[in-house]
């Protein structure tokens, strides 16, 4: 308690560790707030200016439209002037000049018309007033023809060195068009109106081809390849446009205004495309320059205000946080400084530096101070208690010394051999148990050598065990163990395990030892029995799997060649179920005895477990191994096994693997033989199967193990997905019936088709659990779908027909899900039903008793189908898809399908055609009276969740 504590390294204060990240977070939030405010104001300005730009475009286009309509009206009035038509009809040029001269002053002064032109039917100019002549490239002849043909006025716009609006109307005399009048006017009035409407500086620009050499080079904008044909406030506006033409393309201005800073002002430039320009070689724009200095300055002021408020708030929050933390942190530092004093035993110092009472409204620091003070009190009491217990410990040592003498007296009552020897191995003392087992008194034992009495090595132990060589007592420097044979009073030999330990008491001579012996005769016999059991099967007394694997491995190490024959009894499960497990055990013993008597000299025979036996044959080739397999079949067939009045035919499926061709280890060889045995079970024409050199049984086994693991994982973690495929009523394509299909969700996220995992599930027995999983989730979905009149069909495997708990499970799931059993259709395959007809009929009837409907799947592939059809309680017959798909190419399929449909109808059952994948199949199926169809043509599978969502 008085040891000094190690120096504590200085670290940054906890207060600053809290303040620093908090300050950084607040600063980030303030910056984000300012940025959002500035962004919001800027967005508002941009939206406002975009709306203003769109309004400007509309107003300018409207002004141009009004100007064009006005010019067309003036042209119409001019064409209707008295004597104009007659003068043109009579080719009276003087008369035309007189008429035009009379109207020209009002057109020029009041309407701003630049020129009036009269053309005859051939497009020749016959008269004019105003500007010298019209643009030579105007399509005068085309306009004349168009006017004479359609009698519809023409109005257009052409921009070259200037922008002129043109309006042409026909001249009618007695209802016939004899020529046309054309008026032209510049866009000066439109430009002035645009300036007044927009409140902006306005320029009129023509891009592309511009004729003539009279253009002012100073008005050329190279960035836009355009000439300014009109501009307001030229001196400040022209340099601005030159700078803007280098910064942004002209076509973007027509969609989005462009903002820029010029001469200390914030300006916005936009363009209005003049769609009426009829000259395809050039493009004309109205350019608008708006001053947005006021709005931009207002946004900057608002941003600066937000910045000032944010910084002020951040500083205030930091000062408040600092004020809150400084006091508690000082108290924490005080407690931290006092804790090392506890290890030095300065308890009083700790108590005086800490407050004695806890405030009514205490916090965590108050609790820490109180805990530190309480810890000081407890450590002080503990230190005092240690001193007190030291004296008590001394007293306890004396008590233990007296207890030791008491223990010595108990040794005589212990049921073990206890002997004290001298350094030379002479017996000094024995206990009562030793005397009684030997039938000798102390005087017959004391003084004699230990090994003279307790070493009967000359007599063999049961089982032939050998003893270690005895050593003189003086050679034992520490604890030793050994086993010796003892000839007891009852003339029997016993095995005693001796434990020798030196005695170091001061009153005994150096080298003395105490020997304790335990009679382990019964344990040795049990060990021998266990050793036998470790290598043998207790039921058949043949070798077991462990011994067989060691024997195979030994044969491989000796580089010998041979074969392994692995056999599995067929229908052994039925023997156990029909006659009882004791009869099955009797059958296993009889098979083992038959194999051992006839083949025991040929190789090593073992029972690997269950009804599996294995035979190791060394020095044989494939033909000899096949001969042995055939011989085993003959032996098993000759066993006339009867039990409970039943005679059982005994046969086996055998797999043959050659070594070292099919494996370099015992595990690989057994796996190969196991795979061959399963192939033999799958074969229908022979009871044995020999692996070829090309087959890799290990890979197949690993793949099967992989899929078994995937099935376990999918069942445990709900990694299956349910799909549904519609079953369509053929006469009206109504869908109220779906078949449930299962897919496995692979770890990579993809869906695995059932052909990859269903066969493994059937082989491993997991298909029953999978069936239950599908039933449970289908009923949960059915609880949501049945209100729409939807029914779901669920496939059951053949193994589920033997699931004794299926009825109760289905009853419980129907109750918990709230699903109507009438909307559940349970399907079994025809093959499964025929294989165990009685069981299938009872199970199907059980389903119908619960209210469910039933269906017979893949109907038609069995040869005895029609015989059993009337006896199976099913509602639907699903015709196998192999017949449906071949209807268009195989006449025999027509006969089979029609026969199935007729017979099913005669039994009162509805029919469903599978694999309807082509449109021509549906009329054939309807003709045969088949009610429903299912296939990719009628509907592809979709996720069940999609069906639930509607």
Description:
With 950 residues, the chain is α+β, with helices and mostly antiparallel strands. It is built from 30 helices and 33 strands. The strands form six sheets. It has an eight-stranded mixed β-barrel, surrounded by four helices. Strands 7-8-6-11-10-9 form a six-stranded antiparallel sheet, with helices on both faces. A five-stranded antiparallel sheet has the order 2-1-5-4-3, with helices on both faces. The two termini are 77 Å apart.
Summarize the topology:
Elements: H1 14-79, H2 84-89, H3 93-111, E1 115-120, E2 125-130, H4 140-150, E3 154-159, E4 163-173, E5 176-186, H5 188-198, E6 201-208, E7 220-221, E8 226-231, H6 234-247, H7 250-253, E9 258-262, E10 265-273, E11 282-291, H8 293-343, H9 347-353, H10 364-410, E12 417-421, E13 427-430, H11 432-438, H12 442-445, H13 450-454, E14 480-487, E15 493-502, E16 513-519, H14 521-535, H15 545-557, E17 562-569, H16 572-579, H17 581-599, E18 604-609, E19 612-618, H18 622-637, E20 641-643, E21 646-648, E22 652-659, H19 666-682, E23 688-690, H20 697-717, E24 720-729, E25 734-745, E26 751-752, H21 754-764, H22 767-785, E27 791-795, H23 806-817, E28 824-829, H24 830-835, H25 837-849, E29 853-859, H26 865-869, E30 876-879, H27 881-885, H28 891-906, E31 910-913, H29 921-927, E32 932-933, E33 942-943, H30 944-949
Parallel strand pairs: 22-23, 25-27, 27-28, 28-29, 29-30, 30-31, 31-32
Antiparallel strand pairs: 1-2, 1-5, 3-4, 4-5, 6-8, 6-11, 7-8, 9-10, 10-11, 12-13, 12-16, 14-15, 15-16, 17-19, 17-22, 18-19, 20-21, 24-25, 24-32, 24-33, 25-26
Helix pairs in contact: 1-5, 1-8, 8-9, 8-10, 9-10, 15-19, 16-17, 19-20, 20-21, 22-23
């Amino acid at each position: 308690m008085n040891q000094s504590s190690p120096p504590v390294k200085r670290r940054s204060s906890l207060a600053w560790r809290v303040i620093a990240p908090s300050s950084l977070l607040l600063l980030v939030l303030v910056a984000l707030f300012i940025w959002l405010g500035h962004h919001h104001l800027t967005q508002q300005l941009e939206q406002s200016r975009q709306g203003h730009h769109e309004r400007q475009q509309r107003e300018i286009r409207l002004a141009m439209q009004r100007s064009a309509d006005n010019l067309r009206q003036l042209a119409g009035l001019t064409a209707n002037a008295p004597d104009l038509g007659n003068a043109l009809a009579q080719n009276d040029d003087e008369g035309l000049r007189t008429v035009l001269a009379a109207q020209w002053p009002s057109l020029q002064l009041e309407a701003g018309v630049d020129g009036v032109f009269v053309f005859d039917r051939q497009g020749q100019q016959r008269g004019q007033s105003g500007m010298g002549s019209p643009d030579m490239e105007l399509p005068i002849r085309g306009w004349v023809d168009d006017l004479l043909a359609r009698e519809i006025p023409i109005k257009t716009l052409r921009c070259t060195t200037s922008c002129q609006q043109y309006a042409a109307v026909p001249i009618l005399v007695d209802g016939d068009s004899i020529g046309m009048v054309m008026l032209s006017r510049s866009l000066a009035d439109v430009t002035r109106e645009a300036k007044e409407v927009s409140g902006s500086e306005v320029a009129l620009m023509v891009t592309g081809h511009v004729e003539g050499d009279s253009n002012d080079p100073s008005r050329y904008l190279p960035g836009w390849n355009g000439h300014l044909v009109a501009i307001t406030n030229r001196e400040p506006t022209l340099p601005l446009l030159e700078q803007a033409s280098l910064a942004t393309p002209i076509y973007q201005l027509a969609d989005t205004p462009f903002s820029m800073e010029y001469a200390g002002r914030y300006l916005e430039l936009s363009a209005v495309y003049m769609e009426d320009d009829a000259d395809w070689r050039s493009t004309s724009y109205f350019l608008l320059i708006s001053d947005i200095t006021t709005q931009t300055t207002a946004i900057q002021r608002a941003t600066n205000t937000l910045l000032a408020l944010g910084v002020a708030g951040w500083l205030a929050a930091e000062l408040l946080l600092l004020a809150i933390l400084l006091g508690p942190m000082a108290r924490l530092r005080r407690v931290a400084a006092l804790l090392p004093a506890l290890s030095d035993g300065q308890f009083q110092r700790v108590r005086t530096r800490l407050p004695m009472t806890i405030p009514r409204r205490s916090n965590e620091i108050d609790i820490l101070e109180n805990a530190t003070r309480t810890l000081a009190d407890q450590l002080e009491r503990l230190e005092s208690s240690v001193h007190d217990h030291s004296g008590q410990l001394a007293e306890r040592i004396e008590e233990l010394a007296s207890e030791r003498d008491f223990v010595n007296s108990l040794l005589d009552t212990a049921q073990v051999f206890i002997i004290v020897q001298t350094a030379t191995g002479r017996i000094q003392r024995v206990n009562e148990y030793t005397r009684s087992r030997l039938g000798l008194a102390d005087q017959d034992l004391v003084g004699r050598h230990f090994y003279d009495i307790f070493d009967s090595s000359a007599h063999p132990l049961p089982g032939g065990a050998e003893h270690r060589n005895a050593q003189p007592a003086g050679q034992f420097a520490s604890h030793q163990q050994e086993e010796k044979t003892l000839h007891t009073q009852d003339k029997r030999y016993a095995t005693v395990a001796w434990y020798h330990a030196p005695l170091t008491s001061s009153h005994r001579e150096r080298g003395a030892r105490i020997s304790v012996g335990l009679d382990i005769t019964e344990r040795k016999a049990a060990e021998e029995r266990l050793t036998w059991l470790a290598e043998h099967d207790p039921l058949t007394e043949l070798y077991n799997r462990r011994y067989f694997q060691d024997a195979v491995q030994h044969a491989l190490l000796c580089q010998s060649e041979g074969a392994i024959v692995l056999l599995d009894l067929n229908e052994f499960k039925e023997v156990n179920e029909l006659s009882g497990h004791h009869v099955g055990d009797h059958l296993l013993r009889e098979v083992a005895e038959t194999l051992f008597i006839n083949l025991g000299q040929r190789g090593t025979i073992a029972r690997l477990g269950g009804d599996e036996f294995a035979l190791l044959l060394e020095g044989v080739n494939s033909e000899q191994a096949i001969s042995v397999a055939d011989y085993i079949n003959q032996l098993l067939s000759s066993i006339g096994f009867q039990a409970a009045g039943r005679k059982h035919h005994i046969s086996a499926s055998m797999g043959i693997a050659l070594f070292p061709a099919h494996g370099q280890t015992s595990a690989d060889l057994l796996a190969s033989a196991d795979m061959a045995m399963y192939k033999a079970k799958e074969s229908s024409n022979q009871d044995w199967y020999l692996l070829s050199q090309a087959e890799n049984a290990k890979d197949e086994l690993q793949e099967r193990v992989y899929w078994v693991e995937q099935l376990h994982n999918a069942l445990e973690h709900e990694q299956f997905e349910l799909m549904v495929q519609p079953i369509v009523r053929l006469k009206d394509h109504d869908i109220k019936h779906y078949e449930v299909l299962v897919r496995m969700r692979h770890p990579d996220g993809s869906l695995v088709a059932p052909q990859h995992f269903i066969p493994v599930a059937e082989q491993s027995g997991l298909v029953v659990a999978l069936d239950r999983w599908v039933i449970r989730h289908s009923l949960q979905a059915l609880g949501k779908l049945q209100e729409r009149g939807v029914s779901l069909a669920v496939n059951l495997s053949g193994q589920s027909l033997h699931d004794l708990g299926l009825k109760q499970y289905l009853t419980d799931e129907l109750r918990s899900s709230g699903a109507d059993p009438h909307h559940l259709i349970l399907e079994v395959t025809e093959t499964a039903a025929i294989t165990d007809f009685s069981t299938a009929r009872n199970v199907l009837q059980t389903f119908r008793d619960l209210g469910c409907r039933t269906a017979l799947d893949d109907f038609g592939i069995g040869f005895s189908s029609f015989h059993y059809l009337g006896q199976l309680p099913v509602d639907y017959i699903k015709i196998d898809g192999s017949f449906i798909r071949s209807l268009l190419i195989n006449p025999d399929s027509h006969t089979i399908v029609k026969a199935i449909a007729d017979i099913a109808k005669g039994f009162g059952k509805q029919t469903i055609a599978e694999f309807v994948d082509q449109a021509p199949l549906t009329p054939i199926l309807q003709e045969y009276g088949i009610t429903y169809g299912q296939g990719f043509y009628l509907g592809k599978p979709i996720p069940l969740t999609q069906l639930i969502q509607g």
